[in-house]
Amino acid sequence: VIHWYKQKEGETPERLLFFSGGKVTTESGFQANRYMVERISVQKQCVLTIKDVIPDDAATYYCAYWDPHFTVIGYYNKMFGSGTKLFVSEKGSSPPTNSEILQKKHENQITYVCLIEKFYPEIIRVTWTDDEKEVTDNVVKGDTWQSTKEDEYSIASWLTVPAENKDKKYYCKYEHEEEKVSLPTQGNAVKTAPQEDDCRTVFSRDQLMHRTAYLVYIILLLKSSMYYLTVLFFIYR
What we know:
Elements: E1 2-7, E2 14-20, E3 23-26, E4 35-40, E5 45-50, E6 59-72, E7 75-80, E8 84-86, E9 98-106, E10 109-119, E11 125-129, E12 134-135, E13 139-141, E14 145-146, E15 153-162, E16 171-176, E17 179-184, H1 205-236
Transmembrane segments: 214-236
Subcellular location: Membrane
Main location: membrane
């Protein structure tokens, strides 16, 4: 049995429907004819389709099922997926106008800041990888923020690695509905900011402010780490 939940921002999740034996049972308050569920057993997938999408459909949707392999005192646990956020707008989407990696070295660590600016809508996936797999340790993903225009958003993500990895290449990958880009930490970072006639990159005031804020954040974070290590040294000593 596959369950689907709908959670609007700032509200508790509510079950939308459940799918069992090829039959969809929709909860009261929802129009049954607008939802279609298809189960693809070979690929172990369950697909929810919403017809005639309206602004009220904007929410995060979760699939879930009762897992008999994870029990607590004889009870099944309901396992939830990571969720899919649906954004509904009449405005067309636009890809980021600028994306780059900033580097900050401090003693035995290097922090890379992946800055992705001015895109719409705000839904974007940012990950770090090396040449082989996704990197999840020592990664911090910031929240999206609005630029000077209400319909433009930016985001940043940090990766901290040991200084001995300075020659190792990492990639900041982002997926927006308009494009997918992979930025390497070695070589020239990708920049797509608008240019003037003299071909110099133009950076708006809010971009510079956010750069400064993130660099300050990095410095404070590194100082906190050093303080923590110093305290541990004296404790164990």
